[in-house]
Write a structure and sequence with these properties.
Layout lengths: L15 H35 L3 H11 L12 H28 L12 E2 L2 H14 L10 E2 L2 H4 L5 H18 L8 H5 L3 H8 L11 H20 L4 H12 L6 H16 L4 H16 L1
Parallel strand pairs: 1-2
Helix pairs in contact: 1-2, 1-3, 1-9, 3-4, 3-6, 3-9, 6-9, 10-12, 11-12
Length: about 290
């Protein structure tokens, strides 16, 4: 049987903690630029409305910017603002998909499971992580199925996947010229009040996003990536043997326990104190005896 070589992550992304922190860092690099664009567009709109006629002001600033032949008479300011927010959402989605791809490249994840499930990056990643933790083999070409709620709620909150789906689908409709529409109330069912009480904002309609929608989308993705990363490893099978190998040769039990807890928190995003104590106790006892 031909051996299949799994793609290994680069050294930069060899732990869930590094993937999660890099994702947040990437968003931090993108967001200021997009917020600056948003601010500039708002300023242009404000100054245009104060000018008479508006078209002349737009013509002057586009000419100064090196676009003398651009046609500005039919510019729709609401559409202009919407494009800024949709572009920001698209950039967040791209960074999130990159993080999902890196999760599937972790050396204890069987990335071949991704072919067994139909759906977007988020669902494919959750399914791949879940089946890898179970130790199941890929289905070898069987028809892909959809990810059931009974699986994804083990990793992320339903509110989060509703938010991500809403903005991802809205982006596709707006940017790809689809004739479909998304009914906000039907999509979120009875969860709009929960979202508002949790995040402080309620999603806008799919064709009238503002900066709060970008904020909601970003928060939902950050939470999902963090949760998936923290739940990505099979502790008994994949993590404990690695910890035993790393701390083999240490002679002071307190130092072993401290090092293990630090590793679990930083590299694997495990925060539960009982779980931290149990793992550190188990590994340190097996090393010291």
């Amino acid at each position: 049987m031909k051996k299949i070589n799994k793609k290994k992550p680069t050294k930069e992304f060899h732990t869930p903690g590094k993937i999660e922190s890099t994702f947040r860092k990437n968003l931090g690099l993108v967001n200021p630029y997009m917020c600056l664009v948003d601010s500039a567009v708002k300023e242009i709109i404000d100054l245009s409305k104060k000018s008479s006629p508006e078209e002349k002001y737009l013509k002057n600033i586009t000419k100064k910017a090196g676009h003398p032949k651009i046609y500005t008479e039919s510019i729709n300011f609401e559409h202009l603002q919407q494009l800024v927010h949709l572009s920001h959402i698209s950039l967040i989605q791209a960074k999130a998909e990159e993080a999902c791809a890196n999760i599937r490249k972790l050396n204890y994840i069987n990335s071949l499971h991704v072919n067994d499930i139909d759906g977007d990056f988020l669902r494919k990643t959750i399914y791949t992580v879940h089946k890898s933790k179970e130790g199941k083999n890929p289905k070898n070409g069987r028809k892909p199925k959809k990810l059931g709620k009974e699986i994804y709620i083990k990793y992320i909150d339903e509110i989060e996947i509703l938010l991500i789906d809403y903005y991802r689908l809205s982006r596709n409709i707006n940017l790809h010229g689809s004739q479909n529409i998304i009914d906000k109330n039907k999509h979120f069912i009875n969860n709009l009040e929960v979202i508002k009480s949790t995040f402080g904002y309620e999603p806008n309609n799919y064709n009238s996003f503002d900066e709060n929608d970008v904020y909601l989308f970003s928060l939902a993705w950050q939470s999902c990536i963090k949760k998936i990363c923290s739940l990505s490893v099979n502790i008994e099978r994949d993590l404990i043997p690695k910890l035993k190998k790393r701390y083999k040769g240490y002679t002071k039990i307190d130092r072993i326990k401290s090092g293990i807890i630090q590793t679990l928190k930083q590299e694997y995003l495990i925060k539960d104190s009982e779980k931290l104590d149990n793992i550190s106790e188990s590994v340190s006892t097996s090393i010291i005896g």
